[in-house]
Structures are given as C-alpha cells and as structure tokens.
Sequence to fold (522 residues):
Amino acid sequence: MITIDEITIVRDGRQIIEEFSEKIPAGSITVIIGPNGCGKSTLLAAIAGDIVPSKGTITIGEVHPARTSARTLAGVRAMAMQTQFFTLGFTVRQIIEMAGAPFQVMEQLHLTQIADRHVTTLSGGESARVAIAQAIAQNAPVLLLDEPLAAQDVDSRLRIIDVLKKLAENGTTIVVVAHSSEVDLTWADKVIKNFA
Amino acid sequence: MKKFAPTVNAVLLVISIVLALSLGATHIDHFWSALIHPGSNEILWQIRIPRVFAAVLVGAALGIAGLMAQGACNNALAEPAILGTSAGASFAAVIGVLFGVVQVGSLGAIALGAIGALFATALTFKLASLRSNLSSFALIIVGIAVSASLTAIVGIATTMVTRADARSISFWNFGSLSLITNGNLIGLCAITIIGGAIAWRVAPALDLLSLGDSTAFHLGVDVRKTRIVALIALSILAGGAVSSVGTIAFLGLAAPHIARFVYGPAHRFLIIQSALIGSTLLLLADTAARTIAQPNELPIGLVTSLLGAPILIALVVRRNTTWRTP
Fold:
C-alpha cells in the first residue's frame, strides 16, 4: 500500500500540492487525472522519491522514498517518465535489459519487431513504449507511469491497459497519471482527481 | 565485420608501435635484431621505446578520460579540455614546476596534475550548477571559462619566469612527448591502470546515466556518486597525462566518439576501445610530428587534430544514430 499523509509540495516558491492525503491499495490500478499544471506529475515524482515534500510523508509499504537509497528504492518502485529521451544508440533490447529480463514484456508491448533498432531512431510513441517496458521489466511491486497512453495509437493503448490489468492481477500496485481528456477509465480501480 | 573490429583495432595498434619504433631522424641498422636485444641500440632503447610507450599510455588515458567526461556529463561535446580538467592539471603542474616543488614528468607532478584536474573539474561543476540543476549548456560555457582562465594564468606565469627551463615548460604545455624518459613511464602506467580500473567500475552506471538523471535514479543509480566517481577517474587519467606530456588537443573528444561509432555505446566495452583508438591515434600523430618536418618537431596537438578530425567527420556523415542531442 502507498500512504500519502498530508503532503505539501512547494517548488520554485509556488505551492503545487497542499496538505493532500490518500491511501492507494496494493494490487490495484489508480489513475490520477486533472488539468495541465495541477500537480499530477509532481505527486507521482514525490511517490517515486524524485521530489521531497516540504511537509508530510509518503510511504510505500514501510519504505520512505525520500529517505531511501536509490538502489533499495529501485527494488520497491519502478517509474516511466512522460517523455523519455535516449541520447545513446543502445538497441531496444539493451535498454530493457538494463532493468531486467526483456523477452516477455517486449512481446506484450509489441516491441519484438524493433528489438534490435537503435533507440535514437524511434518515434515518440515507440520511445514511450520502450520506457514503459523498461519500467515493467524492473519487476518492482509498485509501478508508476506518467501519461503512458499520451503518445500511443488506439491499439497500443489497449495493449498497454491489458498489460497493466494483468500486472495488477498479479499483485503489482500501479499508479498512472492521465490527462483529464481520458474519458474511458473503466480499467482503473480508483480515480483521484482535484487533489491539489 | 563488426565482430572482428576489436581485433583489427589491436592489430592496428601493434603495427603503429612497430612503425613508430622504426621511424625517426636517425636510421636504426638491423632494427629487428636491436628490438629483441635490450640495450643494444641506445636511440631505440633510451629514446624511442620510452616515447612510444608513453604515447600508448597517454593515448589510452586521454581516450578513457574523454569517455568519462562524456558519460558523466551525458554530453557529446564534453572532454577534458572543455571541462577545464586539462587546464587545471596544467595549471597545478606548471605552478609546481616553476616554484621548484616538483619536476616535469615526476610522480609528484603527476599527483599535482591529478589534484589540479580534480579541483578545476569540480569548480566547473559547482559553478555550472549554482543557480539551477546542472545543464549541458551551463557546463560547457563554464568549463570553457574555467579552462581559459587557468590557461591564461599558466601562460602569464611561464612568460614571466626567466629560468632556463621556462621554454621547455612552455613547449611541454602545448603538448609534446619529446621530454619523456624511462622514469616517466612508471607514473603514466600507474595513472592509466588506476584511472582505468575506476572507469571500469563506474561504466555500467554510466550506461544508465545516458537515459537521464531521473531515469537512472529510478533504475537504482546514485547519480551524484556516479558522477563524482567518473570525474575522479577523469581527473586521474587526464591530470596524469597532461602533467607528463602537456595538453594534447582533440584526443579526448575524438577517441570515444570513433569507438562509439564503430562498437556501440556500452561503456565497459568502450573503455577498452577508446584506449586502443586513443593510443593508435597518438602514436601515429607523434610519429608524424617528429618525422614530417625534420629536424624540427611539430606540436603534437596539431597533428592529433589533423588526424582525428577527418575520421570523426567521416563517421558522423556516414551514420548518425549513435548519439542524439535533445
């Protein structure tokens, strides 16, 4: 379970999140929605340990992300960013292998055909899918995804949602940030909105 | 073909070594016989062999140093000369030599060079991240400024000194292997092994760092520690090399890029290949520098630039999927 306890986040002098609390149950898919700039990605980054709240605490099980080493945290949560820029010409397979075994997730997300392509040649949607695949391959009990459906076509969206459902069925806790334009959220177990 | 490329690279280095040993102002009679009988020919054993092995070690050190700079900054333009590392090493070594604390090429000068390199690189990073998160743009601009300031101080210091060896210090400061002796090889060997070992250890984390600081952190990398360790390796390698033979331009930039174009981006593999390519380039450049305009010797930095630039341009023009900038 992820417990968010009265957190306030201030960045560059601007209060982005104010005294927000929430409990996210284990083995579920939770979607955070809201308009641009409302702090959805900031909340996800705080759960991932990228940002330390000015006030309040976040815990993943017994772990405090803000006080945990990067190595330990990598075993607790995985995260795919909204945009992943690849600087070096690793292949798709090599990128996913950096996190864990690539074969199953490459097949699930239809990446097998481009497994040997350099990631520097991928489109935005393909790059995003590789980033999602890498996060899934990390095999952590908590999976955090920032707008994973944004750059995808309909087939890819359905495929990603299907993979997420299966992961949740197997006990993974999934938190997804989505834009408020996402109308069909029937695949989510819980939706958080207007939280800031 | 790609499978055999590492072997081809090693063979090229061996051929370059033989070429460098056999060519020079003085013809060596019965070259092969002299080569297998230690001490039999003074020019070969006292001058050329130390110089050739110094070129191999310095080329390897600068090749790996460039790789560390580019990996730590996640920036294609980063190299010891741009981050202020070379200027810091030069500054510390020259000041040490001028004040009589150390001698050119000594272990003390190498240690001083490495400390100066570390100090200057740390200064560049500190200044570049003072107002916001570390950006490539700030890093390069600040690095150029730190480098220019330290180089200017070194220039002023060597010009003002009237000591007899000031000219040789000045010449060395522009990059030359002509002052190398057998005694310098121990220090060069030590910095290449120590720096190379640290680089080897941090290399897998640099693969992850290429995905950006946030993603690397999500995958379990301590970003700050990784960067510090890579910069220590960079400072030991570049600092030791510069304090022994002066500033040699372009090698730290070109060798890792050439290696990456041929062998791909994995840092552990690139350590070996950047070292081999750096050694081969420097050997060929030094051989050309001391034979083209006999009896004069050309500054080696000019030749490394002339030799490395066309190779790099040809590779960039041929394919561009190896490095992409935001």
In short: The two ends of chain A are 21 Å apart (CA to CA).
